[in-house]
Amino acid sequence: MIPRPQASDRIAQALRIHPVAALLGPRQCGKTTLARMLGEREPFTYFDLENPVDKRRLSAPMQVLEGLSGLIVIDEVQRQPELPELIRVLVDRPGNRARFLLLGSASPQLVKGVSESLAGRIGFIDLSAFNLKEVGRDQKDRLWVRGGFPRSFLAEDDETSVAWREGFIRTFLERDIPQLGISIPSETLRRFWTMVAHYHGQVWNAAEFARSLGASEKTARRYLDILAGAYMVRVLPPWFENLGKRQVKAPKVYIRDTGILHSLLQIQSLMDLRGHPKLGASWEGFALEQVIASFETRDAYFWATHAGAELDLLVMFQGKRFGFEFKYSDAPDKSRSMRIALEDLRLDHLWVIYPGEEEYALDKKITALPVWGRPLHLQILGLG
Prior knowledge:
There is one protein chain. With 384 residues, the chain is α/β, with parallel strands linked by helices. It has helices at 5-17, 31-38, 52-57, 61-65, 83-91, 108-117, 132-135, 140-146, 150-153, 158-179, 186-198, 206-213, 217-229, 258-264, 270-274, 279-295, 336-344, 376-380; strands spanning 20-25, 44-48, 70-75, 98-105, 122-126, 202-203, 233-236, 252-255, 300-304, 310-317, 320-326, 349-354, 360-363, 366-370. The chain is built from 18 helices and 14 strands. Helix 10 packs across helix 11 (186-198) and helix 12 (206-213) crosses helix 13. The longest helix has 22 residues, at 158-179. The radius of gyration is 22 Å and the shape is globular. The model has no long low-confidence stretch (mean pLDDT 90).
C-alpha cells in the first residue's frame, strides 16, 4: 500500500474547517483505500452505496445517520442524490458531533448538487491517480508507461497492467457513463476518446472533431465535457492578455493518465513508447500532470500566438508567474519562443522540464530541470 500523505492532509484540513468534505476523482483512483487509511487514525462509520446491504441501511437515511457521531464516510454518494440535503439538516443541528466524508466519482451533477445543498459547509478535495511524489523517482518509467491508477501501476507485469486498463476503459464506457444519466453509445464515446488521445497535447478544434464524428460541434464539445468532468481528460485553458498580438483562444486537450493514453494508442511497454510518434506528446502530458500536482493549483494555462510563439504551461503561484516547457531531450536548449514568452508574459522564471538528471541554467531566467527530483515547487522556490 502506497501512503498518500499529501491527500490525507488535505482531507484533514478540509474537515477541520467544514463539517463535510467531498473527495472526488475518477473511479479506481484510490478514494476508498485513502478513506480507510484515514480510519486508522480515528474510529469511523463506513457506508458503500454500491453495497446492497449498505444501500438498504440508508433507505431511511435520517433515522440511521442522526444517531451517529464522529467521522461518517459515505462512498459512491452520487448513487443517492438526496443525501446532501439530509446531511445539511444534520450538520446544522445544535450540538452536532458528526463529520462527513463523501466519496464520489467525478460528475458535474454531483458537484453541482453537493455545492448547492451544502454551500458554506463543505470542502472539496480532488484526488487523481498516483504521482511521482507518492511512488518515488525509482518508479518513474513504470508510472509513465502504466499510469497512476493503483491497480494498473501495481500490477505484477505489463501484460496484467494493460489488461486492467482495457477492462477499466470498457467498464467506464458501458457502466459508469450510463450511471451518470448520460445516454451515448459506448462505441461512439470510445471513438471520440481515442481521437482525443491522437490529439493529446494539441489545441482543441471542435470543427475537426465534429467532421470526424459526423456530428455537430456542440455534440463534440459535449463529449469533451463528459470526459473532462469524469477526470479522464484535462482541458487546459488558454491564457491571453492585451499584448497587441493575435493569441490562441482555444484550449489544449490531454488524456490525464498516461496509462490510459497508452492503452488508447495501443502502446503496451516502454519499448513500444520509445518508438511511437506520440513519445514527445506523452512525455509532455506526463510532466505537465506532475507539475500541476506539485503546485496543487487550478491557476494553470498554456499560451500561444498565431505567429508561432508558445508556452506549454503557465502557473500562477504565490503572486508570481512561472512558465514551463516540456522537452523529451537529453540536453534541451533555450529557444526564441522561450525568450518571447519570458518577455511578453513577464515571467519570473521559465523552467524546461526534461527526463534527465541534472539541473542547469540555460539563461538568467531559464533553467533546465529534471522532473524526477524533489517536489518541483520546492526546487523552484529554492526550498527543501
